[in-house]
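We treat protein structure as text, and this decision shapes the records that our systems exchange. We quote a single record here, exactly as it is kept in our systems:
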Amino acid sequence: MPRPGSTTCRRSSRRWGDGIKTPGESTSPAATRPQPNATGCGRSTSRRPKLRPSPDLSISTVGRGGRKRRSASWNALTTLAPHRNGGLEMPRRCLTWLARSLLLVAGATAFMGARPSHGEPPPIFFEDTSAAAGIGFVHDDGGSGNRFIPETVTAGLATLDHDLDGRIDLYFPNGSDLPGTEPRRRPRAMLVRNRGGWRFEDVTAAAGLDHDSYGVGVTVGDLDNDGFPDLCTSNYGPKRMWQNMGDGTFLDVTATAGTADGDKLGAGLALLDADGDGDLDLYAANYVRFSPEGHVSPRIRGVPLYHGPRDYEAWPDTFFRNEGDGRFSDQSESSGIAGRAGPGMGVVCLDEDGDGDTDIFVLNDVAANFLFRNDGTGRFEEVGLETGLAYDMIGQPNGSMGVDCGDVDNDGWLDLWMTSYQGERPVLYHNLAGHGFEDVSARTGAGAGSVPWVKWGCGIVDFDNDGRRDLFIACGHINDLVEQFDDATAYRNHNVLLRNVGERFMEMSAAAGLHAIPRHSARGAAFDDLDDDGDIDGVILNAREAPTLLRNLERERGGEHHWLQVRLVGRGSNRDGVGANVRVVTPEGVFIDEVHSGRGYQGHFGSRLHFGLGSGMAVDRVEVRWIGGGREAFDVAGIDRLVTLTEGAGRPVDRPAETETEADRR
């Protein structure tokens, strides 16, 4: 497929947010879409003198009923958490704050205009099934009062069918005692087997996963193409690789694989077939160079705080090539990855430009995000700035956390969705048909109801099967004492649901039952069909507490929308079909997705692709573009079911003609 700039590439003229299209609907063209931000909105690389205002200078807000709410001083805002440190650049930051405030007002106004009548029943509703599920996992960040920064980044989680019994199981990384602290506990990661009927069984010890690594991130993929999903975990310490032996057990093969990567503070992981050879390679984001030696916590009003990422040097990320014999080689330098370093967080891989290979999007914490564009051979060029993904719409880096991708407006291209820190809007980047990305958060209402909170796990998920993908945000502060010095936020928060209503996103958290669920300080989030009823459920990892299981009651509450789930089996390409592009063609239109390994906040979910079909009653065909292979079309027998598509069993599909549009190509 042509690269951006090719005369055969056609750019859509529809401005996203002027109307989110459902397949089959028509939208009138609007103004030509602007070019993606490639200048950083005037960001200067020169050093500026920093002004340090009086500690007495503060900001106040007015809450409900006109009550004046206390907020942090300016100095507090500069050291409050991982995203404000050192002095304060008053002119730039004041303008940034003002610009963001104006954009929030504009976004909220547009959002409220799309609110339905009060007579409509809640279209999406979640039930908290945590207590009945029998999951004994309790997260432990290893905190001992020292306020070490690793405590703030643990942990993601993963969904997987580890024993191939057809039900989705759960894997929870966990913290452990941190260096320099007195040993006082032995927290452990946990693998729980789904027994059906919302009952889960702890099989950690039997599976050989009873270890005490300080877990941060996890991803899942079939590294040896034997049909069983393997585990990769990032830690504060060596990364670990776990081979699924096919009998319900896992073997630690880190030493043989060569992927330990030293005693780094790791972050998000992703598997991809970077060079199309049929084996999954590993991208490992790293956070900062932390050592407990000489650590002193900053304080505000006597309350201890965590240091932020700007107080430390960033680790470069690592790229491991799968050699196909159980060994991996560090190809960070030769692949072009090692040329950049940032405090990495979430990672997701996708074909952002439609050229048939897999690219890598990496979030960095209060630093420019990276987009590594693949040339098809496993060599990458960092193009975050020129594609509009490095910064937000006003040229600022965010406290970036989790990331997901999905086709939010059904135009045939995968968009990107990332969560961020307190006081920042989560960012929705619209894919400009392979010609870069545009931050459309303000005019679409993405992020409504979440700005006061710290935002972590996220998902682009069609929860009501109406054919439009919704947005979910897991929320919770890093500092359990934050309310002692800032009443504009809270440590424990409700999570946020933004329903895609066809024009914008509507904040539906209360109507969906999320406000009635006990509040926690959430971290990772994963989304899969845990009860095989055709709608997507959720699992939230909560800091220092048990997880929350969210049962989606769309079917039980009379939902009549249809759906299709797709599982891929590669033969010439990698066994899980990671990186494959799937098009579900219906009489009403086309739905697209890709198979990912690694997404959300440093976790993994969704190996089975889920497509909401709305009221559509039929699927004409499913087309698959395999990584390193060709295109095939498959007939499926009916809807409202899971189908397994095996490479080589479909009908070959010729490459699209040069005269077709980019949306048709997808």
